[in-house]
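Ops channel
N.P.: pipeline sanity check, posting one input/output pair.
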């Protein structure tokens, strides 16, 4: 089986005075944790590498990136990890949900290079952390208090044809404590 690795090209940022500025937590990340993505075929296993902070524990890390491909993992989540036979850290589970929400925005091929800044200007004031993967794929992370306003603005943008979006949370927890589909 072949392996494909997708590591993030830039740190997560926040809009400050109209500029996208790396957040300190993302800059101080001291590890990369690899998450195996659901296999689309038996031929290739795709992995997403997220910036993380190890802290005091060798078997846990805090995610310091906005996931672009992995579902149900969010900025600030604590993950259990093991070192692979080759050395890199591999996620084995979520030990603490940060409560943050992840959204992914795909821009049309005809979009200009200024689209990332335009999205930062639109979603930064809503409290989002912003991480560009490319000029066509942008990750957003926000807290639970901002999530509905962000989702509403994303829905409006999609309905107007500006972009497509999805949420990174595929599960939610009910008041009974059971996980279920969104």
């Amino acid at each position: 089986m072949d392996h494909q690795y997708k590591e993030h090209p830039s740190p997560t940022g926040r809009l400050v005075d109209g500029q996208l500025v790396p957040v300190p937590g993302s800059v101080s990340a001291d590890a990369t944790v690899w998450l195996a993505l659901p296999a689309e075929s038996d031929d290739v296993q795709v992995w997403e590498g997220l910036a993380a902070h190890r802290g005091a524990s060798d078997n846990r890390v805090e995610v310091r990136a906005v996931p672009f491909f992995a579902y149900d993992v969010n900025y600030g989540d604590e993950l259990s990890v093991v070192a692979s036979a080759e050395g890199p850290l591999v996620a084995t589970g979520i030990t603490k949900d940060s409560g943050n929400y992840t959204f992914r925005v795909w821009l049309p091929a005809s979009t200009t290079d200024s689209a990332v800044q335009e999205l930062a200007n639109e979603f930064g004031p809503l409290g989002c952390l912003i991480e560009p993967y490319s000029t066509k794929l942008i990750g957003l992370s926000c807290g639970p208090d901002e999530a509905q306003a962000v989702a509403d603005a994303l829905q409006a943008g999609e309905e107007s044809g500006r972009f497509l979006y999805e949420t990174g949370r595929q599960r939610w927890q009910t008041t009974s404590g059971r996980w279920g589909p969104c």
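N.P.: looks fine end to end. Residues 2-96 form one domain.
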